[in-house]
Amino acid sequence: MTAISLMLAVPDASAASAWYQRALGATELWNLGSVIGLEVGGAPFFLAQPEGNRWESPIELGTTTVRVEVFVDDPDSFASGAAAAGAQYHDPVRDHEAPWGTHRQGGFFDPYGHLWLVGDKSPLQRR
Asked: What is the pTM of this model?
């Protein structure tokens, strides 16, 4: 089996874990202090505090280099929950036409500078 996951750089892993749990309904899988494993709807990801190991949080860099794309049954509620918890909801969920059909998608920046796009249909399927 092959799995690809994200490790999001955050300045305080414990505070970030609490935010992702409150805002996105994440569940903490394990906690090593500066590195924490979470999941949202069965999709795992990591949080970690950079410690001089050649990567940094978007807040420190002043930009983000990755879009976190998440696909859920109800993107409107997912994005609204993040906004209610303090995310910068800059791109409201709306209908988009794409080669794989009409889908709903929007986006927000979390408090740590990570760009999340939230949609209802993933294009990552063999056609």
From this structure: 0.90
